[in-house]
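Appendix B.2, paired examples.
Example (i):
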Amino acid sequence: MNNDEAAKIQKLIHNVRNPLNSISLHAELGNMLLEGQTSNDALQNAFTVILQQCRECDRVLGDIRKLTTSETP
């Protein structure tokens, strides 16, 4: 693996970690909102963000897969 490929992979890993952190934060928020018996709108927003970030992780992981399958031996 050359330096360009390693840099691309590092960037993609970083791009997966960001949405994972957001998922974790919004899941915690959802738990806190449930404990506080908040409005359904606030809960729905927390879960919407979680779903969006899951889709972003899936997209970036697809980019990683493409990068690894496009290499020639």
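Example (ii):
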Amino acid sequence: MSTASDEAAAGPYGLHRPTMADAREAMHRVHGHTGRSAWERLLQSAGMSGTETGDDALHRLLTAMAGLDPVSQLCAQALRIRLSSHTHLSAAHTITGSTA
């Protein structure tokens, strides 16, 4: 059984806001054995070190990701959908005061 603190940590409706770590994991997952080099190529393209945090860094990374190969572009699109969904669900959660 989940507790209120578990739900708060998970975000509204159990959806976590994507992070730089999520983007790294996604790139490694979708690129398989070339994941490490794909991640390094992405960081170089974005002019980042990979240690950045926060929304600005994530948006910058997603912009660079969308300019790479088709697999990376799909990964960027999926992360943007997740980010947008989280943003909208958080706003709805705040407005409605939902406990879900």
